[in-house]
Write a structure and sequence with these properties.
By secondary structure, the protein is α/β, with parallel strands linked by helices. It contains 8 helices and 13 strands. It folds into 2 domains: 153 residues, HAD superfamily/HAD-like (Rossmann fold), CATH 3.40.50.1000; 67 residues, Hypothetical Protein Ta0175, Chain: A, domain 2 (Alpha-Beta Complex), CATH 3.90.1070. It has an 8-stranded mixed sheet, with helices on both faces. Strands 8-10-9 form a 3-stranded antiparallel sheet, covered by helices on one side. Strands 2-3 form a two-stranded antiparallel ribbon.
Length: 239
């Protein structure tokens, strides 16, 4: 059972996507109906993902929820239901250059990264190779030392420090006039930690990363998308 604090003031829940709402096998069978019910009966459901905006938009449409999208680990914000334009919070050209340089130093590293990079505007994403620590050390001693490397379990993100889910989430919440303390966040990976530290309550659906478990206020019994379904069911049971 998910432990949630008693509060009548929650206005929104923000979900990470990969590893939280879906995995390589897709959605949990019950996810769409539960997410729609929570969005219409309990609180607004929003998404905050490392994916590009064109990747996250159809997921939001499939869920049929009314919240905003924070994409590219906080770099892109779109709140279409409120009539706001798409906003890019950074320029990712240096991150791409850094990835190309790393590929000259690490054998077998493909600088093109993941396929969705063709739409990426504020950062650059490389396939997970288990070499993110080496990437961090190399960048720290290069002309791209101002950039950071963040792993998510699905990919490795190269971006400017401070470009994270917290930054994008704060921007999106300010547009809606919502206090972050009245928001619940749910995720599974290290790139969700800044989001956890921003909101009023945080829920982890995976114990793979000790730092994520430490940052979260609670962890679900189920793992991954099973944990997300567990959380949605708990929210509905309390409504």
């Amino acid at each position: 059972m998910v432990e949630l604090p008693e509060s009548p003031d929650w206005e929104m829940i923000v979900f990470d996507v990969d590893g939280t709402l879906l995995d390589r096998d897709g959605f949990h069978d019950d996810l769409v109906s539960l997410a729609r019910r929570v969005d219409s009966e309990v609180m607004t459901v929003s998404l905050a993902s490392g994916r590009t905006l064109p990747n996250v938009t159809p997921i939001r449409q499939s869920l049929g929820v009314s919240g905003f999208i924070v994409a590219e680990n906080g770099g892109m914000v779109w709140d279409s239901d409120e009539g706001h334009e798409i906003v890019a919070l950074e320029d990712g050209s240096r991150a791409k250059e850094a990835a190309e340089w790393l590929a000259t130093k690490i054998e077998g590293l493909d600088p093109r990264g993941i396929e969705s990079n063709r739409w990426r505007e504020t950062e650059w994403c490389l396939k997970e190779t288990g070499q993110h620590r080496a990437m961090k050390e190399m960048l720290a001693n290069s002309e791209w030392s101002d950039l950071e490397v963040v792993e998510t379990g699905f990919a490795v993100h190269i971006a400017k420090p401070g470009l994270n889910k917290s930054r994008g989430l704060r921007y999106a919440l300010e547009q809606r006039g919502i206090d972050p303390s009245r928001v619940i966040a749910c995720g599974d990976a290290p790139n969700d930690i800044p989001m956890f530290e921003t909101v009023g309550y945080s829920v982890a659906v995976n114990d793979q990363f000790p730092e994520v478990v430490s940052a979260a206020d609670c962890i679900t019994d189920g793992r991954g998308k099973d944990g997300a379904v567990e959380l949605l069911e708990e929210l509905l049971s309390r409504a």
